[in-house]
Amino acid sequence: MTTLTLRAARRCYNALNPLHSAFYFAPEHDEQLAALGLERGSMAYFAGRSAPMGAVGAGTVTATFYNFSPDLVARDIPRAWELTTPVEVLETRLRITDAYLRRLLGDETVGSRRMTEAAELALRAAEACEAPGRPLYAANADLPVPDEPHLALWHAVTLLREHRGDGHLIALATAELDGLEALVTHTATGKGFTSYFFQATRGWSAQQWAAAEVRLRERGLLDAEGELTERGAELRREVEEDTDRLGFAPYRHLGAEYAERLMELAGPFTQAVLAADALPLKHLGKG
Fold it and tell me: Which InterPro entries does the record match to this protein (predicted)?
């Protein structure tokens, strides 16, 4: 029997995650949440992602989202809950998901046996996700599994994404990287979004970004040019390894054979998402 490795588990996660992430960049997202009275952009995002936790305040969203400016969060939360309710947002999330998956994948794929099997395997993997210390995962896990397979798949992938994301925050806190320092060091790897994109979407100013770079240089993690030092690169590797380890349980539960099958099933779905430019990949890099 083939033993599932941490690297293979990460590959499985990467094969699934675009199906979840495309939700936030779909035009249907802002359109339908704006119809509830929410402002497009950050308010729609904060409300849409935090709704499983209920009408929580800015402090909870800042803590669980980690790398967004507290000032940006406080601008939108709890004001969003004066305009709509978490129940209305959760109902709208499923309508958004149905619309964008049908648009990107087509009705035939949405109704296919491949979709049903992928949903079954992803849900099986999510059975092993752990709630303690994982607030965003736990909140989503309290939601009912949708009946339609494509919505059930999105729900399962959301559970896997938030479970891994919660673990990633544990790894960042262990590395003593605050939310902004996490963004700066991620950008410095060349594998994340650009500093301009992060500043614009996470609410950080150029001055705050520069101050974080100073703190990281003082710790010996960045050099004078803003590149990761050897110690900085090692710390980022440790963060990713800890994230893989903390997010391993669902894929270990699924097993190597079924994890491979899930990647095989989900591959064409993810390829369709990427081919449609449904994610802002043009903003990746160090610029």
Answer: HTH_67
CA atoms within 13 A on the CB side of 11: 13
What are the helix (H) ranges across 189-279? 195-202, 206-218, 230-246, 249-254, 256-275
Provide the residue type at 257 as one letter: E
Burial 242-253 (b: 16+ CB within 10 A, else e): bbbebbbbbbeb
Q: Is residue 66 very low, low, confident or very high in pLDDT (cuts 50, 70, 90)?
A: very high
Model confidence pTM above 0.85: yes
| Nearest alpha-carbon partner for 194 in 205, 181, 183, 203 | 183
Q: Which of 247, 233, 284, 262 is closest to 123 using CA atoms?
A: 262
- pLDDT tens digits, one per residue of 68-121: 999 999 999 999 999 999 999 999 999 999 999 999 999 999 999 999 999 999
**Rounded to 5°, angle at Cα 197 from 230 and 177:** 40
How many CB atoms are closer than 10 A to CB 6? 16
User: Of 145, 185, 190, 212, which Cα lies nearest the Cα of 286?
Assistant: 190
Kindly report, residue by residue over 27-36, the tens digit of the pLDDT: 999 999 999 9
Cα–Cα distance for residue pair 59/79, rounded to 1 Å = 13
Fill in the amino acid letter for 117.
E
Contact (Cβ atoms closer than 8 angstroms) between residue 187 and residue 226: no
| CB of 93 closer than 8 Å to CB of 51 | yes
